[in-house]
Amino acid sequence: MAIIRLDNVSKSFPTRHGSIAIMQEISFEVKDADFLAIVGPSGCGKSTLLRLIQGLDRPSSGSIYFRDRPVTSVVGGMAMVFQNFALFPWLTVSQNVAFGLEALGWEAERIAAQVERYISVTGLDGFEEAYPREVSGGMRQRVGLARALAVEPTVLLMDEPFSALDALTAEGLREEVLQLWRDPQLPPEAVVLVTHNIEEAIQLADRVIVLSRRPGHVLAQVEVDLPRPRDRKSAPFYDLTDRVYSLITEGGTPPSPSGNGGGAIAG
Amino acid sequence: MATTYPKCSPTEMLGLLVLLNDHKGSEDVALLADDLDLEIDEIFPALEYAEVLQFVKVTDGRATFTDLGRKLVGASIRDRKTIVREQLKKTPLFRTIVRALEASPEHRISDEEFGHIISFTTAKADGGEQNIVNWGRYADLFRYDADVHAICPARKVAATKGGGRSPPPTPPPPADSKPAVRSSSGSTEPPRGPGTASAVA
Could you tell me if B101 lies within 8 Å of chain A, comparing CB atoms? Predict the structure, then answer.
């Protein structure tokens, strides 16, 4: 059964000069045990899509379903990891991880146990009392991850989680995210990763949704049927990367008046 | 081990090892950097510290896993911390910090004292204190309390004041090494600091 289903979702924003279409008629499903990546050039509405899925914003037309129920407001059962970590600077690592649980109204004792567990699985023990400013980007994103996982979401949403990190740190953290994902003891049941990094998408995901330039629409859904850990230097990996890259660069413009042709990829 | 202090974060060094693993455990350093579109000097800090901790050997411009490095990259997130801890404890820098912490009467090293310790172990600290603290935190060698600006014993083995859990018995350190810094009271208590996690075997 699909956990999340998008049915012809479009989104446009009004401006003084008329409305701008961000995405058009997007349909796809997130299934159980899915690690789904959404790739596309900057401005194609990838992040907006995550906001819609989480119920933070409403589509202009079309529908989104979570476990077959229409998403009309913020959905429990989802948690987000942000590009810029979105940690509270005045809270310690532990307090940041506890934040989501406090918001859910958990009792203090239960929060403490849960925080300890997720601090530990993300490798943050030792940093409990640290403030975000004291720790490296890699550790900050671990906090973002621990905070999201601690609420034991059905679906983990990740919005460019590695792009604010230096290359080596990102490499290390991607591998850790896969470790956590493979652990059957841990949530979530599905991951939706938004990224502009095609290699990253193919390295991590089972399925890649390729979006076009704005207004974003689905160019293709690419299955990544490669065993993990994936060898980035293997021929099949290279072929898939090449295919997605071609899709985006040649991905034409949608049948809309705002198309401006050209084949350059942004982002 | 060299008296080198870390100029990268733990995650950066782990990232380098993951990258090296992608290259089957042995690769020309320039090609490693190139794989991530980095300049070669951008991976040097991580490479240097991976070598200090004996996870990697660099010969003729080629980085190759040691057995321990291979073990580290194959380990879980938690086990990695234990492996790193055991290696950190062998470095003069961290050994000295841990000893000083054990020897200090309050089991606490203030920022100022920490500065002194570093000046004993390295030529210059050039603002790397925060990074050193974070390696110690990562490996659970000690904590740092930003509110009182002091390094404190790791929680699991902390000698809690006024009762509570007592620390596990800790074998004495190797007789050959002495802490570079001792508190003026010259404590002769047996060490009770972060100790004997035995998971690396």
Answer: no
